Amino acid sequence: MDLRAIEIKDLEEAAAELAALNVHKGGIGIMAPKAVTRIIKIRGIDSVALNILKQEMLSVGGDCGVSWDAFIRRNRNSEGILIGTVAQIGEVCEKLEKQPFGLSALAQKIRALEAGYGRKDLVLRAGKYKLNLGKRAHIMGVLNVTPDSFSDGGMFFDREYAVGRGLKMESDGADIIDIGGESTRPGAKPVTAREECRRVIPVVKALAKRLQVPISVDTSKSEVAEEALDAGAAMINDVTGLRKDRRIAKLAGRHKAALVLMHMKGSPRTMQKDPNYKDLMSEIAESLRNSAAIAAEAGVSGNRIVVDPGIGFGKTVGHNLEIIKRLGELKSLGYPVMVGPSRKAFIGKITGAGSEGRAFGTAAAVAIAITNGADIIRVHDVKEMRQVAQITEAISNV
Questions:
Q1: 332 with 117: CB under 8 angstroms?
Q2: Mean pLDDT value of segment 222-249
Q3: Do residues 216 and 295 both lie within one domain?
Q4: Domain holding 380: CATH number?
Q5: 315, 344, 358, 386: which is the annotated catalytic residue?
Q6: Which residue has the higher pLDDT, 243 or 115?
Q7: Do 356 and 264 lie in a common domain?
Q8: How far is it, in rounded angstroms, from Cα 354 to Cα 116?
Q9: What's the rounded mean pLDDT across residues 195-223?
Q10: Is residue 309 in a domain?
Q11: Is 246 a catalytic residue?
């Protein structure tokens, strides 16, 4: 007799394991949800509702972590951790729909989270382009046309050289080319919209005529976004998550462009001055959810929104590592997740390597990020990281 523990991440893997045993199709549908555990953190819930939720979970064989304080006094802003299989949580949702204290609304939110979590049919629309993110992780190539970016500042500042670099990245396997005209490195000074347009727009116009992949423009200024979209860009990458200029969302909606919403604590000039969080992943998720709601209200459809936790933007080394490790938690937002670890300072602080010597550290971060659910990887070294992505996914999809 032989025993071994097996790891099952999702319903698809559970179904495959059961099918390999020749379990009846009907039985697979019943048993697969029992093989996958969900742990859901709930914030801002009434303690009365939380205690009802705990009793309901216990009744189906699951549980709910509740603070002792929530047991002994009324608190309208409590937190809890729901623990159960997919089957148990589905059963509890049916019970909650008949309960008061906001539990019916909670059941709807849990069902929506479950529907969005780990989706493998994600399709991103960007102007005329359709990117099938459910099939594989996509590579966004970084093209900085700035004199002061942390990694490649000045290298592609010459217009013709920048155009050549963009074409080379496409041939190396980039699915998106992201052009930036303002450095967002820690401590960077802002530039005017006019100067940013002077740097970016001619490159966008030239590449839009020659590229077969969508162009993204890394900007937090609506003036730049508008000119870029008119020039042929199909995506706007806003590192402020619409906190600085909400008009960007209206422009994206009007042009049917994709919109990347990133989390940043503070501004580039201040973000690395002792950043701290009470609950890192919850705060990032809440911020991104709010940004997405602003975008949706402005007319950006859900299949044109991407979220980015903002590696290195108001985070310590520990924060960056935790984000990559727990990246999959952001999948519950229901949007594609982009991550940009490429050549970042946290890699240098761990390895001691300068920005030009961080390719292998970046490769490790990219592999783990894809394993943990990244849909888009933003990188400088397209050819190398494309290969990393291909091998990572080949292993993951066995």
A1: yes
A2: 97
A3: yes
A4: 3.20.20.20
A5: 344
A6: 243
A7: yes
A8: 39
A9: 96
A10: yes
A11: no
Residues 75 and 139 in one domain: no
When pLDDT is cut at 50, 70 and 90, the band that residue 215 belongs to is: very high
Q: Do 162 and 106 have their domain in common?
A: no
Per-residue pLDDT reduced to its tens digit, 7-45: 888 888 899 889 998 999 999 999 999 999 999 999 889
- The residue type of 74 is R
Our answer to whether residue 344 is catalytic in this structure is: yes
Report phi then psi at 174, rounded to 5: -70, 135
CB 377 within 8 A of CB 369: yes
Q: What is the pLDDT of residue 157?
A: 55
Catalytic residue among 38, 304, 378, 386: 378
| Structure tokens belonging to residue 156 | 């592609």
pLDDT tops 90 at residue 70: no
pLDDT at position 309 over 70: yes
Same domain, 254 and 332: yes
State which of 59, 83, 116 marks the end of a domain: 116
